[in-house]
Amino acid sequence: MAAITLIDGITMALARAMEEDPAVVMFGEDVGVNGGVFRATAGLYDKFGEERVIDTPLAEVMIAGMSVGMAAQHMKPVAEAQFCGFTMPMIDHIMCHAGRLRNRTRGRMSCPMVLRFPSGGGIHAPEHHSESPEALFAHMPGVRVVIPSSPSRAYGLMLAAIRDPDPVIVMEPKRIYRWQKEEVADDGEELPMDVCYTLRDGNDITLVTWGSMVKETQEAADQLEEQGLSVEVIDVATVSPLDMETIIESVERTGRCVIVQEAPKHCGVASEIAAGLADAGIWHLHAPVKRVCGYDVVMPLYRNEMKYMPSARRIVDAAKEILEVS
Amino acid sequence: MAQTAAAFKVDYFQFLKPDGKLVEDQQVPALAKDFDRLTELYKLMVLTRSFDKKAVALQRTGKLGTYASSLGHEAAHVSIGAAMKEEDCFAPMYREYGAQFYRGVKMSEVLLYWGGDERGSDFSGPEHDFAWCVPIATQCLHAAGAAMAFKLKKEERVAVTVVGDGGSSKGDFLEAINAGSAWKLPLVLVIVNNQWAISVPRKKQNTAATLAQKGIAGGLPSIQVDGNDLIACLWAMDKAINAARRGKGAFVIEMLTYRLSDHTTADDARRYRPSDEVDEAWDKEPLSRLKTYLVEQGAWNEEQEEELLGECKQWVQQAADEYLEMIENDPQPVTAMFDYMFKELPHDLIEQRSYAQDYAEDGGQH
């Protein structure tokens, strides 16, 4: 079993899903011959041919709309948006059709499609290549939003997303595509969606995050542990629906919570988690819930992008602030 | 001196003139003499118009929500349904009842949809047909996706979609043309050009001489027909669907008709549309010309007409009764809004469903 990166995990899951189900097709710009601009679909064109790894014209609305059409006719399209910023024209089809096809036909039709795309900043990319639009998608009824943050979760959650009978948005944290290596067996075993993954156990404070911010959050947890604290780190993994139970169970033990989010702060997933804690976890809290987020600004061009993003230092400072409250 | 890089023309077809006579200066297709088929479709056109009148009346008396009338579009719509096979896939916009009735959708189901009940979209037509599509032109890409699925699965099926003149301005329509061209999809895109996008007339939408030529720009064979002439519409649909089924790729048909009604019952076209234009359009409407033709050919008579009108009235009343019975005596419970969101409800919706149910059971007060 070889040690692989997060993006390798994605490629491995895509290949596995294509092998096990002939209805699965890749559909997007440059996904075929070129293997995707990040190489997520590398090798699939040679293995499965142009009828299953389909290079599309440059038309995002078409990619989303035709995926809805194919999914409604019993195909399983895995559509790729090349970058997060280019998903905006697709929202009409995700919001108005993918998420409601089953409901509005009382189950006569369904939409088992996946829309996957690289998300987030930190790779010195041009404008519109670095956004984190998970809250936009998480607000859409009928749509799951999954963000894997490790090689094994990339493999297991991507398989679960493709096999799911309903639409799933898979946002791939591109900054950590090649951050860590992990041994992952290509055994076809999926991992459950709709649940958080606890990355380390602790009793003094809970750090909650998802996507690329797992990196900074883990670094912050290391620093806090060096100072003698016991830190719990939770990777939300599925931001819609949200598994508040795991987060609340953790906060029942720690009484303190910092939520770390790369996206802008206002109306983000962090706000929803904080609201969930205010609702069901407030009697267990010893201190205010802190959100460490991106600012409510346009994602800056790359010279300033790391200053936009939550750093380990900002996370540690927020944690210390609430650890001081007795 | 520039050379010609490309040149195009758009053919226009009319076989049955507004006065009910066949055109004389060109060959008329054999189906003009297929009186069994034409009579059957004429009956459906009359039924569609009777249904439309009833639906508007139900709305005016507070028994139906906003309703989009199909008045004047009957030839276009019925031809679309009639040219398709059961296994083909229809992706309508929201007023093509004539096509849907032909495909087995019940009148009571159309009323359920506009009456605010999702069960209307779980209709009796082919289960692979798409439901009504309100966002405008998005259905073109769903049809293109369906066509792609048929092509990939090597099934001899065709996807057919309808867009209005208004919708032909949207990117979805143009991207569907492009997709049909790029992959040679078994796809028929029908522009039912009724001259008005709510209050914006065709002339203000763009300066192109035809809307069909948008298909040509994308590389598709594209024609224009008199959309009030059932024979022309049906001939064009047969031709396009047969070509698509034989692997010849996608096709665009622009059917020229006229929206004789308001856009929907929530609209008042008198605010923006001159009445003399509407009067002129009535002279060209599709039913009377077909009836005149069939009567003159000895395929139809006044006695049959009277009988048909009586039957239609009865069928339409029966549909209205079925609809009213369902919404009054068998309404969907509050849980119905949750039950089809996902195949299996996620934990958060299970919780919300239970909460909503508690409130609904508490004397029906939400």
Question: What descriptive keywords fit this protein?
Answer:
heterodimer, A: 326 residues, alpha/beta, Rossmann fold, 19% strand, globular, B: 2 domains, two-stranded antiparallel ribbon, 8 strands
Please describe what this structure looks like.
The complex is a heterodimer of chains A (326) and B (366). Chain A has 326 residues and is of the alpha/beta class. Chain A is built from twelve helices and 14 strands. Chain A has helices at 6-20, 44-48, 60-72, 91-98, 101-104, 134-138, 151-163, 213-226, 244-254, 269-280, 302-308, 312-323, and strands spanning 3-4, 24-28, 53-55, 76-80, 114-119, 144-146, 168-173, 182-183, 197-200, 205-209, 231-235, 238-240, 257-264, 290-294. In chain A, helix 8 crosses helix 12 and helix 9 (244-254) crosses helix 10 (269-280). Chain A is globular. In chain A, 58% of the residues are buried. Chain B is of the alpha/beta class. Chain B is built from 14 helices and eight strands. Chain B starts with 11 loop residues before the first strand and ends in a 5-residue tail after the last helix.
Q: Which shape of chain B, going by the Cα principal axes?
A: globular
Low-confidence region ranges of chain B: none
Sequence of secondary-structure elements of chain B? EHHEHHHEHEEEHHEHEHHHHH
- The number of helices of chain A is 12
Estimate what percentage of residues of chain B fall within beta strands. 5-15%
What's the arrangement of strands in the largest beta sheet of chain B? 1-7-8-4-3-2
Radius of gyration of chain A: 19 Å
Give a count of the beta strands of chain B, DSSP E runs of length 2 or more: 8
- The CATH class of the largest domain in chain A is identified as Alpha Beta
What is the CATH first-level class name of the largest domain in chain B?
Answer: Alpha Beta
Structural class of chain A: alpha/beta
Give the integer mean of the pLDDT values of chain A.
97
- Within the largest sheet of chain A, what's the order of strands? 3-2-4-5-7-6-12
Major protein interface: A-B, 45 and 43 residues
Number of domains of chain A: 2
